[in-house]
Design a protein that fits this description.
By secondary structure, the protein is mainly beta. The chain has four helices and 13 strands. The chain has one domain: outer membrane lipoprotein receptor (LolB), chain A (Clam). The chain has a 13-stranded antiparallel beta sheet. The longest helix has 16 residues. The chain starts with a helix and ends in a 20-residue tail after the last strand.
Length: 242
Amino acid sequence: MRILTVFLACILQPVIALAVDGTALLAQVDRNMTPDSFEMYRKLINIEPDGTRKEFVLYTAKKGRESMAALFLSPPTDEGRTTLRVGENMWLFIPDVGKPLRITSLTSVVGGIFNNSDIMRLEFSVEYNVDAVEEQEDAYILSLKAKDMSVAYDKLKMRVDKKTVLPVTIEAYAASGLLIKTLHYKKIKDYGDGIVRPSVMETDSPLWVGYKAVMLFGEIRRRDFPDEVFTLNFMPSIKEVR
């Protein structure tokens, strides 16, 4: 019996040693996608079935794992609007209104397929736990489960490239199992200072047949910000930090 036990231990040990740590892998994806604190410029494009396009340009600042603020630079109808996310809480400031308004992760400040969760994404490991990891020849498939009901998507299925440890596609599901949308990450770009990540994210959805949304990431730079930038009182003044 003792000999059998030792034999089984010798067989099983390499399997255990080679098991992928899903939590560590997801954390590495987060670090590869964005620095801990940074500023960036990006363009959001909504494309309708008839080819009509509406474009938005945003300046975005992020600090740590809990705070993000963004300023709309265009179009003129949205210029000066700002958004703020602190943990699970999100706000929109419209200059003509004069005070921050609460918004939710499932609604959208730009309309179209992108919701506020897509636009104000902090880090995946902040919102999701890893349920399972499947290892394939050239990729890992991460099955992610939302930590609580405030998260826009109940489950994510993330395909991660083994070589770059960056997402290739993410399928987003409702609690019912309904596929809400698929995110496609493309065109890896070297932004300098060790930031190498996809520069394009395209989104399609079976709920928005014929519609498409694209996010183009321009400059991304490491930068620290004072805590006051990520407060309700500072929302009208975010343009001052550019």
